[in-house]
Amino acid sequence: MISLDADSSPTPEELPPEIDGLRMTKQRREVFSVVLAERDHPTANDVFSRSQKRMPTISLATVYNCLEALVSHGLVRQVNFEREPSRYCPNLSDHCHFQDEKTGTIHDVVFKEGVNLADFLELPQGTEVSHLEISLKGRIGSN
Amino acid sequence: MISLDADSSPTPEELPPEIDGLRMTKQRREVFSVVLAERDHPTANDVFSRSQKRMPTISLATVYNCLEALVSHGLVRQVNFEREPSRYCPNLSDHCHFQDEKTGTIHDVVFKEGVNLADFLELPQGTEVSHLEISLKGRIGSN
DNA sequence: CTTCGAATTAGAATAATTCCAATTATTGCT
DNA sequence: AGCAATAATTGGAATTATTCTAATTCGAAG
Asked: Of all protein residues, which has its CA closest to the C1' atom of C17?
């Protein structure tokens, strides 16, 4: 089990050759490290341009491929707000997202201790939830 | 205040000339009645082809315009699942959506009596939530 | 009945994402 | 090491939902 520290984010070189059965190629390492570095919920395009700094030859298609690989292996979460471009989030703990309408900034929002779905939703019996996305929009404080 | 019965959905002709300050043109009536008729969360395209049956001259752009008008006036809700095309829902009561992964069908899911956001989310103080979307995916019972 | 703003229309444009076919890299043999 | 098989990357084209544009039509108000 690989422990990726939340505070000091790894450079691509520091990432192991394989995580959770996903082969970490040079590009995937680059993309992953970009997502880990700034936890500002970048779009694929953001990731692309940041990756290009260290790896000028990487292509946008590859960034999409890498993000898709990371997401499907559960290393990164894909975050959607209405019809905006998808964003990517390395925070794997159970949480949801709040978007400041003024700035567009996205903040992680955690659930209160010990709450779970069935507690607040009238789910039809026998439903097995595989995926949950909660997206909030609004204003913060004095803005 | 106009009461739109949940069970017997109005034909376009039965809709008043104005709702909540929104002028109900022929097309808006048509689109609205289509969304009200089958509560199956149709996409804009679905609405378009259903509308064409009664109104062969309606255009897709108009359907988008009408849906946008209805949504922004709070008469219809726009429902998003990841990056799928938006769907439209005439159920204005507080609820969220569950998509059956097997069939793609979307079901309304209501909140349990008396729950509210602040009860289960650790919202930063001073946040004012203007929009909330909860989307679930999974399987139902024996499927 | 005319005017004027709003709504509708067809089609072009946009933008995020996916697809494709060709190249390149990596792995696992022997 | 050498080589086949497999997987990943690449650039560019294609796709697709949605939005935009400019021209036309509608409808309410005077």
From this structure: A64
